[in-house]
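Aim 2, interim progress. The first record below pairs a target sequence with its structure tokens.
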Amino acid sequence: MQNAGARRQGRHRTDPRFLAWQVLRRVEGGAHADVLLGRALSDADLSPADRALAVRLVYGTLAWQLYLDHLLAGFSHRPLAELDPAILVLLRMALFQICFLDRVPAFAAVDTAVQLAKRHQHGAATGLVNAVLRRAAQGWKGVPLPARERDLAGYLSVRYSHPRWIVEAWLNQFGPEETEQLLLANNEPCPTALRVNRLRTSREHLLQLLQESGASAQAGIYSPDAVIVSGVDPVSHPLHAEGLYSIQGEAAQLVSYLVAPKPDEAILDVCAAPGGKTTHLAELMSNRGRVVAVDSNSRGIDHLRRECHRLGIAIVETHVADARTWAPPTQQSFDRVLLDAPCSGLGTLRQHPEIRWRRTPESVRSLSQLQRELLEQAASWVRPGGLLVYATCTLLRQENEEVVDDFLARRRDFSLIAPGDEIPPFARTLLDERGTFRTSPHRQGLDGFFAVRLRRSTPVGNVAS
């Protein structure tokens, strides 16, 4: 006879709503949704449609959390903060289906939530779940929002489910119309992008192999290495095990093109883990030269080493260290240095929706200070005439322009330069008048990235090689 744990494990493998609920419960406790969901799906026995449903439930519920809580508060007789966290997550997930998934009838969303509630704490909250969701299913469209005319930031915060401080920051940067477009885009599903490993195949051949395996695959627009896929689990696909591709967003791929490494050069990747850009740099160098990768996250560096083995890369040298205090064991300067700086990640909310609820103005201020320290240290490793690329995956000026402008005001030996022919043709539309690289979900359908190229001057009398 099966015990309760075995039955739960079985439901986890075959029931997409139960799987999504379990993932959401752990994310509520601080776990990362993408990692947890990936593990759960790899162990699950779900049809492609059910896998897609589980993904949509997890990411949609997290993205729309503030809006869902605003609605639920009007139908629950108890304050939401007093509810069992597992039950609150279940209510959000069910209401997300009612509000956003047209193919799921409201009565079905209510019924499945009630059935799931029966499996928690001996069904103690079943009545509450049933009552709240039935009231919400009938009346959610009539719940008032903050008045847009009197409190624009408050309205946008609730309507598009972002913390107010983020909305206010973006209103100052982008204005009302563009901010509203950005907020909406952040809540849309993120396409899955692959990066072809040109050491082993071409993009055209990879597209053919993916399509023959039943996947929907098409070439990316901006990166010549990008393939956009759906209808397939890219992690468990045999082509992934063969090292024919990596999973990496298209905007992230373009950062390596901004570095523009050449075969036989010495490259330093600061804050390298988990290594997506490190391996891309090595691929662009045709596996010739030297790429030194430094990061304080030992697990991330271990992952990078495994990726190098999977992809057939032999030129990456790894170091587990804090880049602010690390001393290169041999080479003291590099032709090109990439600082993919730790940041708030607010340009990646489509694939990491939960981080909006974990970042604060205080944490951004701390990150901005860390970015300044790392940029100063990274600059010391650039040879005269060499290149330093500063990149983030955030849209906040405080972590981008302000960090770079402060650095340039202090370091007269560095100057901002625009990319030349190194960057792919379509990607040149992503540069502003200063040559700054910018992408965003609402403009190009890409993650929000920022990057600049900084050239170190050559002392008088020396000629850059």
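The second target in this work package is listed in the same format:
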Amino acid sequence: MFGKKMKTAFVLFSLVAMLLLSSTAFAVEYENRTEGNFTRNDQEDVLNQGDLPELDVIWVKIDGDIVENGDEVRLNLERDQEVEVKVEIMGNEDFDDVTIEARVYGDDHNRLSDDSETFDIREGRLYIKELDLELPSSMDMDAYDLRVTVAGRTGAVKTYNYPLYIDAKKNAVSIRDVTFNPSNEVKAGRALLGVVRVKNIGTDDQDSVKVKVEIPELNLYAVDYIDELESDDSVSSEEMYMRIPSTANTGDYEVMVTVEYDDGYKETEERYNIYVVGDEDSQSGTGDSGSGDGDNQPGKVQITAGPQTQDTARGQGGVIYPVSVTNTGSDAKSFSVAVSGVESFGTVKVSPSTLSVVESGATETFYVYVSANEDSTLGSHTFGVKVSSNDETLKEFPLNVNVVEGEPGSEEGGWDSVKKGLLVGLVVLIVLLVILGLIIAFNKMKGTDDEDEEDEFDDSASQTYY
């Protein structure tokens, strides 16, 4: 029994000795590695190796204001602007290939930095370098540090921290995006639609923001209003319709997009280009964006529209825009009418149908009925009407409806009133047809009586009396 215990103790002692020897060997290997080429990442000299450059930053100015390194007072700057950073340094000895960088960290979407060209410093001389930083409108309003770094090709770097606070203007609206349809090129005589997306980058909410798209060379413009634009929100305008004149020459045209806000006291503007393809063979109307005239082309198609602007009460009744299509060609053609831009404020129906076949020399009238929703905004609304034949657009033109406050107590639905109007028109038409039929029948009867009288006269004249 005693021999077994001694044997077990010897085995345990051997295992412990082996573990101690393994640990000692690992520690020696690790020490050898750290003393050689392998360097631990937590050593202090890894963070900033080499000698510091022998130069000093005398001062830093941001938009002309001197800021202090590590100051507890933060310089207040407004976003959506470019700031100028000036750095003055002096060399205590000669130092080659120096670069100065100004940078703001912490923005999720933008790299906010600028650096100087590489230059050489000579002892006892002063150097001033100008850098520019663009503070985007998407920056969060918060505290930041401007870090000015001076470094050479090798060695340590000197970094100076200047506290900032990025704020926003009280009233500021930016144009985020503009979409045109067609996007880059439009044919003369065709429609150009524009949608403008704006963002309120100020601290105050905005009301009645006016959005205007204009082509000055063609004397065209379209306007839309955004009723409410809260701070930090983005909103898109409705589609704005402009018809390029058929007489427009081929070339690039400047499109001005203007946004007015703060009760019209402030505005922001962006400029874009659109390419117009002229059509010398086009004989359509003058191309004025408000025109409702037809394309009266002998041997082709004549398209005319009713009044361009009409008033309607919101939630009550509606208005009718007649669109007449005359086929002056030698063959029958099918025509379709499409209406766009009404969904934002009301409903639209086309009677008797959106598609019709018009015989040669005949005229078909499409009745576009538009009614305003009860919650639609008061004022002018623009919508577009397109007449096509066999997938070919013949004409596009804008129409306007002015939504006014309805009279209380009116309960008739808009489409019901139109049906009643059409029914009354049908009754009147039937009465006219009946009267016309009676007149024709009366004339025929009168003609028969006259012939009978002439026959009797001839018979009596042919009798012989003795």
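Residues 414-462 form the longest helix (49 residues). This observation will shape the mutagenesis plan for the next reporting period.
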